[in-house]
Amino acid sequence: MAEGVAPRARRRDGGGGHGVAVPAPLTGRVVPLDQVPDPVFAERMVGDGAAVLPEDGQVVAPLAGTVTALFPTGHAVGLRTDEGLELLIHVGIDSAHAEGVFAALVRVGDRVRPGQPLIRADLGRLAAAARSVLSPVVVTNLDERAGRIAEPARGPVRAGRDVLFRVVWAEPAPAPDGRGSTVSRGRG
């Protein structure tokens, strides 16, 4: 997958809200979040989204943004996208103790481009060390602007190319200059 290749990320939602398409950060098969074998994700305690049963260990940035968190073992990364989404990409379930399985390719504070590799995981070793390789991708700040997940993908997705889900906001995100959304100003 070529870096920088991603579906149109920002769009006006036909229902009156503002929407953002979130490409899959992993290649694999989409699994509904309520089927993740961890109540923290299945019950949406940290956010809503979807999970991917990965085919390979490459995790890429779904959208442009900044790395806000990187867990010590490299099993999870947090991003704040240019559209205002706060994403958590968690590779595997009960994977925090799986040392030596992950290679972090970014650091906290790094700016990332769509399709840029973030983490590389050895799926064989992960399968042996974790409860599941199923990887939740959640938006952790939906409540800030009455957001919701819409149009989750089904079946196979390709990292950085296929939309995993859309986020629909009830109101536009404030722009960095505080004058409203970049969407409402016609950029993107």
TrEMBL record:
Residues 1-23 are annotated as: Disordered. It holds the Pfam family PTS_EIIA_1. InterPro entries: Dup_hybrid_motif, PTS_EIIA_1_perm, PTS_EIIA_component. Residues 38-141 form the PTS EIIA type-1 domain. SUPFAM superfamilies: Duplicated hybrid motif (SSF51261). Keywords: Kinase, Phosphotransferase system, Sugar transport, Transferase, Transport. It is found in: Cytoplasm. Its main location: cytoplasm. This is PTS glucose transporter subunit IIA. It comes from Thermaerobacter composti.
